[in-house]
């Protein structure tokens, strides 16, 4: 009998951590009924700092595999079944999402549940746009409008109509979110950060009363979408749905504003990573917010609270990333000093909450 390969956790630097091609290939060949998947290559896709994402290639084609971190600090925050469910539900709506191919809930295969989806070709704009792509103000304005328009389409989806009834609890969403992220911070606390604690308390004391109910992405920003390689204003797919739920749509808009860095921004408007929106020719945050308000008809006057909450949440997320780096649970396990961004995000959140200045 041949040797039976079973899951074991890779150490940093050993091949493809969390997705051994010697396990992935034969498994996909069996469940997809396609022998060509048996011999595959697996590569970590850069950019993800939470759930792990891999490109799987073989003579059968290319797919994308998503799984939780190798040693998740908070396992409930890395639910593959929820991600698979929302992607499957949104297929056929006006929201472009990758087609789901397979969900595996058996942790014996790769050590954790995972799912596989189609690989969507296009441009992912992180720190900058590729040379020659949307290099005019017209093209960059089209990107901004396309991004906002897809968010408006997402918030127009009827959850019940697409099978997402019960996907979240919209009532009391904001108060629960503040409690949740305060709890995340308490679980991750590695040192005293009184200003972060103060920001959390101020947010909890000023939760706005806003209508809620739509599907939220939870981490909506430019580098979480795939742009059409030929038509810059067309979003080919929205990625990274791990924080999706039902709740207040302005939470998505607030986080988009957090990540929408302008080239004239200073310390009062921090972001932890460079973003393409700081390049000349991109419209500013004011135009982004106005476009959303026009497309949805929603009142955005309370948006500063949501921006402050987005900065707070991002500070906690970064604390989690730093904790996973220290635990060796990231795909690359490189300590890149990202924790140094936490204090600036907290300061920015307190400034926005006090002044209402988000532009």
Would you kindly provide a written description of the structure presented here, covering whatever features stand out?
It is built from 10 helices and 9 strands. With 359 residues, the chain is α+β, with helices and mostly antiparallel strands. It has a domain at 21-26 and 35-118: Phosphorylase Kinase, domain 1, CATH 3.30.200.20. The chain has a 5-stranded antiparallel beta sheet with strand order 1-2-3-5-4, with helices on both faces. Helix 5 (173-188) packs parallel to helix 9, helix 6 packs antiparallel against helix 9 (303-327) and helix 6 (194-205) runs parallel beside helix 10 (342-355). It is globular, with a radius of gyration of 20 Å. Mean pLDDT is 89; it is low at 1-14.
List strands and helices in order, with pairings.
Elements: H1 21-31, E1 41-44, E2 52-58, E3 61-67, H2 80-90, E4 100-104, H3 107-110, E5 114-118, H4 137-155, H5 173-188, H6 194-205, E6 215-216, E7 225-227, E8 235-238, E9 245-246, H7 250-259, H8 285-296, H9 303-327, H10 342-355
Antiparallel strand pairs: 1-2, 2-3, 3-5, 4-5, 6-9, 7-8
Helix pairs in contact: 4-8, 5-6, 5-9, 6-9, 6-10, 7-9, 9-10
